[in-house]
């Protein structure tokens, strides 16, 4: 669902900041190709617009999760190289070939289906191979590397790339990183000369050893925090504003919201905003007397969300603003330059990735900063 009235929540995506973030990461990964991960509608920013801006910045390799996302990128970017992280969906090989999508093959079943299609059409269609080095998510098991090598050798087939994925890259000192790096090295021994890729955003920031021939940043492109416990160096890309619906006065002792979970210890001024959990403003961001919730940015100041977040509204204590009272229709910053996505994610006990991709369709998306794009 897309509202176009422009009266509801406004998501502003700074494509210039997105491009600058890609350039900054590309500098760090010097010597390796810097791809761009644009899965989940480019982390909520809009896959066509984001991919186009990233391509203009210099990105040529794109990672999506699903074939549908791959088709969206292909439509926007006829000459991009597109990898589908979820792999080959059964029966979809013809679609991948038609759209020039490369499956990231992670099982013997996927490999057989892809190779059979190559044999049938007498063409070595490109793909990547994913080996699991410690997540038990997608990927061949390490002990399948020899079988995979022997299987493709018989057909003289070679993948475009061999990859794996780090489980704990957000904590650079975690020993699992070194373990996975070593295991990945053992896989690569089976595929000499094939380009390799291991690093997500955090892996990219962790050091050269993790770069190999291609890095795969996602969250850092969109301004999110990749590495825990460090200052986030990325530019803010996404800003979300929600409209004030009503400003009301309330008295000491009165309660706020469902469950009466917040009672006022002073006479207060409250702003009711048109943004709730149905918009992706997680209920875990609610504030009770026992536990503070999210803060939002109103008229130059951080103000607490109090009471339970409802489906379509939430309530903000704006008493501290004094006479500087926002007007109905005015936007309140839910996250952006003044309320970091990751601070808010911390309050909800989640990660910035989830807040970005939890945004539902009930907002208008505005793109700014795309002046660098060729006309
Ligand atoms: C999502 C994903 C990435 C990007 O990760 P970020 O932490 O967002 O940089 C890279 N590789 C794989 C396999 C992924 O699933």
From TrEMBL:
Gene Ontology biological process terms in this record: D-alanine biosynthetic process
Residue positions of the active site: 39, 258
Cofactor(s) annotated in UniProt: pyridoxal 5'-phosphate
Xref: Gene3D superfamilies: Alanine racemase, Lyase, Ornithine Decarboxylase, Chain A, domain 1
Binding-site residues, substrate: 137, 311
UniProt-listed SUPFAM superfamilies: Alanine racemase C-terminal domain-like, PLP-binding barrel
SMART domains: Ala_racemase_C (SM01005)
Entry EC no(s): 5.1.1.1
Sequence similarity: Belongs to the alanine racemase family.
General function of this protein: Catalyzes the interconversion of L-alanine and D-alanine. May also act on other amino acids.
Protein name (Swiss-Prot/TrEMBL): Alanine racemase
Species of the source: Devosia riboflavina
